[in-house]
Amino acid sequence: QVQLVESGGGLVQAGGSLRLSCAASGRTLSDSDMGWYRRAPGKEREFVARSTGSGGSTYYASSVKGRFIMSRDNAKNTVYLQMNSLKPEDTAIYYCNADAGLYWGQGTQVTVSS
Predict the structure, then answer these.
(1) Residues 6 or more apart from 105 whose CB is under 8 A from it?
(2) 27 three-state secondary structure
(3) Which of 13-17, 86-90, 98-102 has the lowest mean pLDDT?
(4) What span, in angstroms and rounded, lies between the C-alpha atoms of 38 and 55?
């Protein structure tokens, strides 16, 4: 059973940065298709970023492209989401997933104040 635990969320002013972490346990996820999603208040969950197995390719939602960077540290079985130039509309609960959505973390809250 794979468990994912997100951390790194918090309150930040617009223009600031945060780095989210998603630590996996249960098995090695170096070949797993992993992603970040978010759910803003009153909205549906939306795609943020995705890293294909072995980190071959990374994809981003247009709303975050150029501001967010997804990376993975296979030695630590952890993926990251570096979020820069944050905007109030980035406020949401951020979730990571593994195996193309088979496993999900519990989420971490990100709040961006204007």
Answers:
(1) 4, 5, 6, 22, 95, 96, 97
(2) coil
(3) 98-102
(4) 21
CB 50 within 8 Å of CB 64: no
CA atoms within a 13 Å half-sphere pointing along the CA-CB vector of 88: 2
Look at residue 55 and tell me whether its pLDDT is greater than 70: no
Q: Is the pLDDT of residue 29 over 90?
A: no
The answer to whether residues 3 and 26 touch, using CB atoms and an 8 Å cutoff, is yes
In one letter, which amino acid is 104?
W
Cβ–Cβ under 8 Å, residues 28 and 83:
no
Q: What is the mean pLDDT of residues 93-107?
A: 95
| CA distances to 17, 61, 68 from 82, in Å | 7, 14, 5
- With beta carbons less than 8 A apart as the criterion, state whether 30 and 54 touch: yes
Q: What is the pLDDT of residue 13?
A: 98
Reported confidence tier of residue 56, pLDDT bands at 50, 70, 90: confident
Q: Is 88 helix (H, G, I), strand (E, B) or coil?
A: helix
